[in-house]
Fold these 3 entries.
Entry 1:
Amino acid sequence: MSTDLPIRDAATVILLREGTDGPRVLMGQRGRSAVFMPGKFVFPGGAVDVADYETPLPGALDPVTQRRLAAECAPGLVPALANAALRELREETGLVLPSVAELQFVFRAITPPGRPRRFDARFFLVNAAHLSCDADDFSGAEDELSHLQWVTLHGARGFDLPFVTRVVLAEIEAAFGRALPPDHVPFYDHRGRVGQIRALF
């Protein structure tokens, strides 16, 4: 497998809501025939596309999120990442977040070499209370994710998850109940052959 594949910028949305049995996150299963992470349960998300650069940003990003996203980031990419987060959420789940104001940047990870595709993914946490629709209505979803469901953090561990998703879940559980934005954003940097774990402040 090639180790010099292009690294595409991507955005992932972790929708969180409080349930009677604790916090729940929205996850879905990728198709078994997918090239990247087939059959895995993941959060909604995907690569930034050209339209994300051209679409006016709905609302204003939290200043801390804005600053941290801009670290080691190409010009114009910050609003494109936020637009991609809202677009991918809408396409993959049918759920609509009308503004980027509630997006909290909580994690960044670059896919290690040797994978069929590589992404520089930024993970955004947002409370489902800010959706402009019924959080249980997935009727508008496209078919990229199946078995969309709200699952407890404990229950999610029983799914077939990518490694990075397990790490993100652990971070979310550790940070649950703390004030946002977080003190720092963990960054799993695998641009080189040896990965590094850093913090974005």
Entry 2:
Amino acid sequence: MLVAAAACPCPPLLVPEVAAGAAPELDAARAACTDALGVLAAARPDLLVVVGPDAGTRDHPAGTRGSFRGFGVDLDVRLGDGDGGDDGGAGGDGVAGGELPYGLAVGAWLLGRTGWAGAPVEGRGVGETLAPDACLAEGRRLAGRADRVALLVMGDGSACRTLKAPGYLDERAAPFDAEIARALGTADTAALRALDAGLARELRVSGRAPWQVLAGAAEGNTGLSGALLHDDAPYGVGYMVATWS
């Protein structure tokens, strides 16, 4: 069952080498992510699954590699220990794992930065178009993988928070993100289940599907309480950090 979860943003800019001169602008978010991972470690899970946005719904086995070379940085990461699934690591829908997508690569970087050694680590990429019911089913499946499962859930809020945001300004973005922050901060699974997938897509929210996976994983544990550690939109994109334990 799910014993703990951390929700973290997944912009490559979270990695100082990628952000370069702008790195200090996300220092608070990095510190909150470090604190969130501490909550996961304190829960002493048997398995940690990193869940994040992906091109399709697929597994990324322990040891899968990722890279930030596409962002002009000679930096590679590895998701836990393992061989990375030399056979391709096909997921539940038959899609091979391959290299880590950027969201899971950021998660792997966070784990490496904090020296994670608390439990085996695996990754699960979630497609942006995965329907809410399918996300909930994914979460229930992941929660049943071990007696004590923890999730590191990577995802951003709306990219339409300001005029200079990647998706320009949309007046619906701030209230949408505010409800997500409230739900993450209070472990409100019903609110996460109710997120509108179509509106999330219009507002360029990368975290909708991963957060609904979290809601599904938490269904068997009504004793989880939430804490919101960070909520900001420095580049017109919602970055939230929260823990459930």
Entry 3:
Amino acid sequence: MGKGKLAKFADMASYPHVFEYPYSVVDDVPFDMKGNWNRDFFKNDNPIVLELGCGRGEYTVGLARRYADKNFIGVDIKGARMWTGATEALNEGLKNAAFLRTNIEIIDRFFAPGEVSEIWLTFSDPQMKKATKRLTSTYFMERYRRFLVPGGVIHLKTDSNFMFTYTKYMIEANRLPVEFITDDLYHSGMDDDILSIRTYYEQQWLDRGLNIKYIKFRLPHEGVLQEPDVEIELDDYRSYNRSKRSGLKTSK
């Protein structure tokens, strides 16, 4: 680990709006904020919105700037990346932005039933080899149900055709209500002030001529969620820090 990362982690440890609970400490350190985010941290009753896999936190910070009547929490395990958004939020005095450094597999440990109103998934790794690692899989959807309000909104913004297609099949298999869907966001007429917040890597993909895809859907609490049983063509390009890593052309 380089000195730059060490300095960033030292900063994060001192930030009042950053909470760090990776696997290595989560069982030993109590997390008293669960069910009390509004009362104990945000000091208001505004809706809570999560950005899962927030990276540098561009969406968390961008949304917090635009919507003072909502509270935003960026979640990721990569602290050195998260430092960028956390530092911006601190320097700008954004009282409605916080960051949680943890593994998303245990996200339901940090929020009580009905405590979260919306989830943003911005350019998540499509995890083409294993369905249970995809952030729109039924594995994760069941966890979201544990803290998302009934019928809460999930936003998926992605460069990955695999992730987009898989999520469409998952939504169709479970008859989840879709509010908006497009495979070319910036030519859909829907690139409004929220959706046009662009992450660092998104701009790189746009510069490479890749279409940005977007789905907005709701997650009811009723019913048993089913995984789609379909073969999906793998992405045929290398996205940031991703590759097929095999000779396969499709995956379930």
